[in-house]
Amino acid sequence: MADELDLTRGVSTASGGPFAAAAAASRTDAGVAQPAPPTTFLLWQADILGAVRKFAGPAAAAAFLPLGSEWTYLVHPDERADAVAHWSSCVRAGESFRWEGRLQLQISDGYRWYLIRAIPAAYPDSAFPLWDVAAMDIEEHRGREEKLKKANLELEQFTFTACHDLKEPVRNLALSCQMLQQKYRPQLDGSADHFLAYISDAARRMEALVDDLLDYTRSSVVTAAPDEPLDLNLVVQDVLEDLDALVRDTGATVRSQQLPALRIQQFHIEQVFHHLIENAIRYRSERVPAVEISAERIGEVWQISIRDNGIGIEPQYQDTIFGLFKRLQKRDEWSGSGVGLATCRKIIESYGGYIWVESQPGNGSTFFFSLPLD
Amino acid sequence: MAPNNRSAPLIYLFEDNEPDALLVRMALDRQLTSFELQAATEGEEAIRLIDGVDKDLESAPPSIVLLDLNLPRKSGEDILKRLRASRRCSGVPVVVISSSESPLERARIHELGATAYFQKSSDLAEFLQIGLLVQRLLTNQPISGA
């Protein structure tokens, strides 16, 4: 039995059963202060009130719950009542116990997510029945689950708002055609009528395409970071080539200091630079746009900044601009869709980084994003 | 603010999409014999209009508000909340105009106190029905001068 536990950290594979190993560990570990890895798996026996009677495995030695205390004291205060209630009802009914929640098994661990399962012990003492309890660390699993939930929520928001924002121009197209056909038909010749029919038809097809696009976004694919670091200097060069027309039209200058190489998907970081540099030029003030890109290493993080001399952003909008479909300008002033910065945030956060802006209206903005070294 | 002609209802139109605003005006032209229109194309402008009515007792509150949900700077929901909290506009009928088909959105809008919900159609005849809706709301409701 003990040999099967070697998949876990902190549990000995020494023969003699889990409880013997625990006893040995508590002897050898005594007085040795060393940071233990998070307890990933722990076994104990508890009485019907939940009081711990025996621990198994050396990890038990590091658990700070004294024997005789109820294991539910390890549970996060917010979830304790739920754990206690579920434990009592299972024990009363003699049913196996299964519960997920946050527990702190060692002081150094902090609260982590565990799956707790318990069954009545194989050889019950009818006067003093015990339950075998197993706690398995599911922190990473939960983390992934939470991320997935967040991603799904964002996707729902995206599809909802995209319905509005993408269909609107198509609808305007269709309506304008109908207006022309109704109001100006006497003045139009046959071929003009044909062209109007083509436009109407195109609008209908576009409407269908938008619907398809929405279906496509629902099946978004998560891609892993590449093994080889990517030279961001080359990425900025490529992006500037894409933005060449805008740069030339506005007379903008874009200067980039030496940038690092980072493990990030090219099309992801390209999008980030594209949106940030484009915004820096597009939201210009009276001055000729001047954009400065620089990078600074702070500990284990690279912080990239894109500074402009544009119109700036009022403080109350500096957070909201990263939301989906958030625009600050009227449609006729700028052609932004309100998706760019939300996309940047999604990308940067998916790599464990942050994105934010510092700005004063009239004095330009500096967009920062951070990316961990690894 | 221009003096309010007693016989001409004052209509607030908060819409940032120009073609939609044009069609709404056209629909109103077809249905109403006379009306006065105050338009705003972004949220803060709309809020300023409502604030203005609350502060200046001489100015006439609108007879009806037509409100697009997706405005820059302040959302339609924010404006609806502001309207319902307003001293002089809280009782004014509000028609929310939106191209969304979401029943959830519709429910939320009614919770916030919208009088009616008008879905923008890509069919011209259907879109122009907004004129009828406004006419109906205006004749059912006495035009409040206070």
Structural write-up:
The complex is a heterodimer of chains A (374) and B (146). Helices cover 41% and strands 20% of the residues of chain A. In chain A, the strands form three sheets. Chain A has a five-stranded antiparallel sheet. Chain A has a five-stranded mixed sheet with strand order 7-9-10-12-11. In chain A, a hairpin with a 5-residue loop joins strand 11 and strand 12. Helix content of chain B is 42%, strand content 16%. In chain B, strands 2-1-3-4-5 form a five-stranded parallel sheet, with helices on both faces. The interface between A and B is medium-sized, with 26 and 24 residues.
Kindly report the name of the CATH homologous superfamily of the largest domain in chain A.
Answer: Histidine kinase-like ATPase, C-terminal domain
Briefly note the CATH topology name of the largest domain in chain A: Heat Shock Protein 90
Following the backbone from N to C, one meets helices and strands of chain A in this order, namely: HEEHHEEEHHEHHEEHEEHEE
Tell me what portion of residues of chain A adopts beta-strand conformation.
15-25%
Query: Which overall shape of chain A is indicated by the principal axes computed on the Cα atoms?
Result: elongated
Main sheet summary of chain B: 5 strands, parallel
Number of helices of chain B: 6
CATH architecture of the largest domain in chain A: 2-Layer Sandwich
- Determine the CATH topology of chain B: Rossmann fold
What is the CATH homology-level superfamily of chain B? Response regulator
Residue runs with pLDDT of under 50 for 5 or more positions of chain B: 1-5, 142-146
Query: What does the average pLDDT of chain B come to?
Result: 88
Assembly level: heterodimer
Please give the share of residues in helix of chain A.
40-55%
Low-confidence stretches of chain A: 1-32, 218-222
Distance between the termini of chain B: 16 Å
> Percent of residues of chain B in helical segments?
40-55%
* CATH architecture classification name of chain B: 3-Layer(aba) Sandwich
CATH class of the largest domain in chain A: Alpha Beta
Number of strands of chain B: 5
